UniProtKB/TrEMBL annotation:
CDD domains xref list: D-hex-6-P-epi_like
EC class (word): isomerase
UniProt source species: Dioscorea cayennensis subsp. rotundata (White Guinea yam)
Domain of life where this protein originates: Eukaryota
Residues binding substrate: R66, Q84, R89
Gene: LOC120268942
Protein name, UniProt field: glucose-6-phosphate 1-epimerase
Amino acid sequence: MSTEKPPVELVKGINGLDKIVLREIRGCSAEVYLYGGHVTSWKNDHGEELLFVSNKAIFKPPKAIRGGIPICFPQFSNFGSLEQHGFARNRFWSIDTDSPPFPTNSTSKAFVDLILKPSDEDSKIWPHSYEYRLRVALGPGGDLMLTSRIRNTNTDGKPFSFTFAYHTYFSVSDISEVRVEGLETLDYLDNLKERERFTEQGDAITFESEVDKIYLSTPTKIAILDHEKKRTFVLRKDGLPDAVVWNPWDRKAKAMADFGDDEYKHMLCVEAAAIEKPITLKPGEEWKGRLELSAVPSSYCSGQLDPAKVLNG
Ligand SMILES: O=P(O)(O)OC[C@H]1O[C@@H](O)[C@H](O)[C@@H](O)[C@@H]1O
């Protein structure tokens, strides 16, 4: 009998919560909790964790898990009357056994389809009917792909609008050594200055204090360069024009019950999002938002390409 672990496995996680483990043949893996439809782990083929999850994260409703990839839907932050970041991140999702055909060019077996539909309670706070399908997939090279498909299933003829974010917490060696490329010269709303609009300077973004910015109309590709780890995260996104960059720094870190005082040094949120222009769907319409994450050695993709390294491997 083979002892090889299956590409998709449903197991019990922290506090007995259901989680799905995805495994790729070369050893990469990912974990998704049904609570929140929340990715809590993404490891490369060396078993190194690429996402940040706080040591103080609370894996218990109604608190969303601090770290990984919370889903912000149907509201980002306090852009509306719902609870902060909407409710999808603290609802129990189901495994979708009846997912409609999914166009894909990957042969990977390591994927799971989840679905969220409104409960009666949810309909009271957001009076719309929808089907939210989330596919989480690991590519053959270890890339992590999240695809959201949200359909308006209202029978009253009414459209609905929402804002959205994949609130990804990346694990970094030291925030002071990290640089983000792809957001230079763009306009952003500064959450620390009453969402006033500014224009970013020409240099890559670096970090020396709290940051909470919503970059607008961003390119489909953003890179996070971690010098110390010699690792670059590449985000590729589709249907998600905005990008939030957040690090709470020391003071806010101390104020969060589910976040260690010094953990801000080892995380950075870069969130592919649709915020400035909310998505509006008429009954029967579907929206798709896709995020693809890869982690590669820095020399291969940075703006600082070292030709010698690229040529000689
Ligand atoms: O503590 P929460 O609700 O998970 O939010 C964390 C942060 O999420 C970010 O996306 C917001 O821009 C910040 O303003 C917010 O503080």
